[in-house]
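Example record for the data management plan.
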Amino acid sequence: MDFDDGVNVIFGASNTGKSFTAKLLNFMFGGQSPLPEIEERRGYDAVLMGLTLPQRGDCTLYRAASGGAFQLFDGLHSAKPSDDLGVRIQPTYDVRNSSNISTLLLEEIGLDGKKVVRNEDGAHLSFTIRVLAPYLFADEEAIIAELSPFLTGDRNLATAEKNGLRLMLTGQDDRAVVPVQPQKVRKAQQEGKYDLVEEMIAEIDESLGEIPSNRENLDDQLGKLETRLSEFQTQIRQRQENLDKMTSARRETSGAILQSRDQGKEVGLTIERFLQLDRVYLSDLDRLEAVDEGGSILLARVGRPCPLCGSEIDADSHSHGQDEIELARTAALAEQKKIRNERGQLLETMAELKEEQSFLDREIEHLRQKFLAIEHEIVAQLPKEARIREEYEELTCVRDDVVEKLRLYKQRDRLAVRLSEFSEKVPRGRGDDKLRTGIDGPTGHAFAQKVQEVLEAWNFPNSPIVSFDSERQDIQINGKARSANGKGVRAILHTASKLALLLFCQEKGLPHPGLLVLDTPLLTYREPMHNPKYGELDDDEKLLKATTLQESFYRHLISLNGKAQIIILENADPPEAEAANMNRVVFTGEEGRGRFGFFPMQSNLLN
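Corresponding structural encoding:
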């Protein structure tokens, strides 16, 4: 079956494969639902669909009739190429593998990589060809459904579908939205936190004891303890200062003793050296006295004959050194005087040194007694200081226990507040910070205006005023919900909504495949006798059928040639006046009279 750019209408007898054609097109756009197991399918094992893509150009998708992966071939083919050089294309989206039907098609129109949130938690859903499919395909059940043309009825996808419509109408996706944890996870976490806090409160109560102290009494007790501890600190500081002073005095006294002892040693050494010098003086005096005594003896013989030669002393030729002896004796006497003088000075100095040594001995004894007194006082004060410190430490422990109990009370108060918070119901989604889903008011109004333009072009009766119901994600006509109309009117309004979306995107320069596949959009022109499946016409359907909407509908679609490819599957014949401006395919349902249906008659296959 060949489809042209512009309007394609497949119409004719019932049960000839018109709806099957729509299902087949959806199947080749990655649909996961298996094809209907009809008798006419037997013997066919594969499907080929030719496409002309904006960038790739002409290509053909091949897929087994039972489903599974695709093969992509360059060019248009009515049979699988014998070289079998097609590229394998996965039927489902995979962010890790770009060789899938969704990426292939959406890359061509600039919708690949888009994200929409799928729930109030902000979890992302990739905008795939299957998310886009409801905007392109309307089967015979969806087109008359009371549900919005842009919703499938799957509650799990409602948020994603609303935001998908926003993406189509604004070009803005949800990649910037930061997801939060799902409500179930947050609820489980909150319950876990509740149990943990409850357990912590129980531990605090256990620490406080079966009969916990009164909180006000603890505050009073803490004040008294702080006062008493401050007094103890003053006493300890004073005693420590006294001990420090005594320790310093003991250290100074000990130093003075050592200094005096060193001085005493030096004085003793000096006295010892002076004693040695005195002994030298005495030895020198003994020697000089001997010289003096010898000289005296020699001089006593002056005037007597020489005992050696018998000569008289006054003999001119005789001389025995009398003068020299006199001089030596005189010198010895002078030296004795000098030494005695020096020795006298030495003895005076020694006496002074001995006095100094005696003073130092007395000073050392005095310092030693002072040192012992200080040491005794220090030894006496240490136990008292230790007792005060012990009492201080005991009071500190009591104070710390009171502080700990007060801390536990405060912690218990905080935990009680947290416990009350955790007992509150976990909000769905983001709580007060709710995500805005769906389209906003101005966008909804602009879209409704485009739907109104389409309906006016179709000469929809009663001058329709179209508005957008953001809650239902659907249009209203003159304040009346689309779902409140009969089946045929719902089908027309469904079709108008999807066509308006296509035109809106094109006018705004937003991505859209430019394709619509519509099963029985003009249901209101049915003949109940021939189509008992849909029942009798409602009043609004009868009113619509009495207008020229059908002719205006086709004329408007034909005017869009070059902008869109529209495939319509209808039971009613399209107007003959526009036959030349559209691709019409008639399924006669009669053997030998034109095309029987999508599949040939079995007898023709046998022939």
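Summary line stored alongside the record: DSSP finds twelve helices and 14 strands in the chain.
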